[in-house]
Amino acid sequence: MDERDVRERAEAVCAALVAGDIERAAVDFSPELRRNLGEVVALLPLPSHEGTVESVAHGGTGFIVALRLVGETEEVVIQTRWKDRDGHPTLVEASHLSRQESAARSGEPDGEAGEAGDAADGGSTPA
Q1: How far is CA 104 from CA 45, 72, 76, 77, 109, in A?
Q2: pLDDT score of 103
Q3: What local confidence, expressed as pLDDT, does residue 116 receive?
Q4: Of residues 46 and 110, which shows the higher confidence score?
Q5: 3-104 belongs to which CATH class?
Q6: How confident is the model at residue 60 (pLDDT cuts 50, 70, 90)?
Q7: Which of 5, 28, 81, 91 shows the smallest number of beta carbons within 10 Å?
Q8: Are residues 57 and 83 in contact, defined by beta-carbon separation less than 8 angstroms?
């Protein structure tokens, strides 16, 4: 198992999460993580619309990989630890490195967008 192998599998996990396919993402999880899948999923911004591998570093008996996932309301960086299990890179641990609330997708506070359809709530249009 080398850095390239780990990066490829981490990128596949990110792609599966962005596609909303938790089952496919969990293929590279250790049996222990799969048994506690709810705890892992709770770390993630779902749905995610972007997932990237921020870094891969050799550490101890495996690799430490930082995954950046962006959802509608938050962006998180998850630190994952990968080890060689039966000749395959396996994700054995996941924890938060950071979590940041993100602005609404419009990028503007309520009432300032001025786009057609914004007045549909009736709150910003005079009667």
Answers
A1: 14, 7, 16, 19, 8
A2: 60
A3: 37
A4: 46
A5: alpha beta
A6: confident
A7: 5
A8: no
- Both tokens assigned to 34: 């799969």
pLDDT score at 97: 87
- For residues 25 and 33, the answer to whether their CB atoms sit within 8 Å is no
Percentage of residues in the chain having pLDDT higher than 70: 80
> Residue 66's closest CA among 74, 56, 75, 51?
56
Predicted TM-score (pTM) of this structure? 0.78
* DSSP of 32-83: HHHHTHHHHHTTS-SSEEEEEEEEEEEETTEEEEEEEEEESSEEEEEEEEEE
| Burial of residue 69, with CB atoms counted within 10 A of its CB: 0-12 exposed, 13-18 middle, 19 or more buried | buried
